[in-house]
Design a protein that fits this description.
Aspartate Aminotransferase, domain 2; binds pyridoxal-5'-phosphate; about 40% helix; globular; about 400 residues; alpha/beta; Aspartate Aminotransferase, domain 1
Length: about 400
């Protein structure tokens, strides 16, 4: 059975071009990029090429890109890096209640060390009101950390405005862009952003590799991974050369997709898909902002149904979706993101997240609509696809 994978916010399939480029770096080449001999120099060249490609995806300079083990490490690096940086006297960090656990948990660890962590609540669409940020900022604020897009509901934040506000308060601004990189154009050069996290496996690259953009001129951060002088002494440890080479190719492919307008095509397909679902499941609820949303994401509630049961039913029909984020669904806890949006517990428990990739056809998505009609629809056999 050909499976239909609609969980691209959890992870994406590795692109064939990425695998192709990585393979020789597992099979033939093994040099350590810190070594001065030919094997080492070859690896260094490929590392630098990949850095250029990832920088191009973000609109950064190559020297502003530090490779990490993924989005989680990039977020930890940014938060701990600023909080614990030499000479840091400011003690307040402002974030939102709907961040990924890789932001929330390092901040929770900082609280008992004397840091004052402010979690801004979102509105019912998942948007943060700039007025709330304004009132949380003061001259003790070291850092503002706000995600660009939420992985569960897709809501986008106004990082331009928030960055300007952080700057006025003399604070650094970190953006978790793990869900937006490759889905929406990013240009850190033009944005008031000091630090920005990305992850390779969300953009058809390998797992276990990511990057942190650190704007040139930012004072040296505390390094949570202290070791050798790799990554210009900002992050120790022999680099994951094959993974970084793959990440570079994935970044190249993402740049090409953005230039070709693929996100707009996915957005249109997603909207059509939602219209079809609404026809067969009339009571379906959409979470988050319809206006400010990732192009591929659809967070839905199926009142009166159980999300976990629907997920299993769909899985048995060859369709992969998730309930909330991979992380909170793994923990068995009701989604804290939906709770922060004010969604009631019963509706949270009826929720499913559909996150599209780049390759779907209407035909394929219609199979999902048919399955939803059987599993969650009012009549179970009402299916007359309307053209959109
Ligand atoms: C918004 C966001 N930030 C960070 C991460 C963590 O990235 P990684 O899986 O590369 O550690 C994720 C992963 O789901 C995410 O969605």
């Amino acid at each position: 059975m050909n499976r239909i994978y609609l969980d691209h916010n959890a992870t994406t399939p590795v692109a064939p071009e990425v695998l192709e480029a990585m393979w020789p770096w597992h099979r033939d080449h093994f040099g350590n990029p810190s070594s001065v001999h030919q094997e080492g120099r070859e690896a260094r060249v490929r590392l630098d090429e990949a850095r250029e490609k990832v920088a191009a995806l973000l609109g950064a300079r190559a020297g502003e890109v530090v490779f990490t083990s993924g989005g989680t490490e990039s977020n930890n690096f940014a938060l701990l890096g600023v909080a614990l940086m030499p000479g840091q006297t400011r003690r307040r960090i402002v974030t939102t209640a709907i961040e990924h656990p890789s932001v929330l948990n390092p901040l929770r660890q900082l609280a008992p060390l004397g840091f004052d962590i402010v979690f801004l609540p979102p509105d019912a669409d998942g948007r943060i009101d700039p007025a709330r940020l304004e009132s949380a900022l003061d001259d003790s604020t070291a850092l503002v950390s706000i995600q660009h897009a939420n992985s569960e509901v897709g809501t986008l934040q106004d990082i331009q405005t928030f960055g300007e506000m952080a700057r006025r308060a003399g604070a650094l601004f970190h953006v978790d862009a793990v869900q937006t990189a490759g889905k929406l154009a990013l240009d850190v050069e033009a944005l008031p952003v000091d630090l920005l996290s990305v992850s390779s496996h969300k953009i058809c690259g390998p797992k276990g590799v990511g990057a942190l953009f650190i704007r040139r001129g930012t004072a040296p951060l505390f390094s949570p991974i202290a070791g050798g002088s790799q990554e210009r002494k900002r992050r120790g440890g022999t680099e994951n050369v094959a993974g970084i080479v793959g990440f570079g190719v994935a970044a190249d492919l993402a740049v090409a997709r953005l230039a070709a307008g693929r996100p707009e095509e996915v957005r249109a397909l997603r909207d059509w898909f939602f219209a079809q679902i609404r026809e067969v499941v009339p009571g379906v609820v959409r979470f988050g902002s319809a206006e400010f949303c990732l192009p591929n994401t659809l967070g839905l509630g199926f009142p009166g149904r159980e999300g976990q049961g629907l997920l299993i039913g769909l899985d048995m029909e060859g369709i992969a979706v998730s309930t909330g984020s991979a992380c909170s669904s793994g923990s068995g806890q009701p989604s804290p993101v939906l709770a922060a949006l004010g969604v009631d517990l019963q509706t949270i428990e009826s929720s499913l997240r559909f996150s599209l990739g780049w390759q779907h056809s209407r035909e394929e998505l219609m199979k999902v609509v048919e399955a939803l009609s059987r599993l969650a629809g009012a009549t179970g056999d009402r299916l007359a696809p309307s053209s959109a």
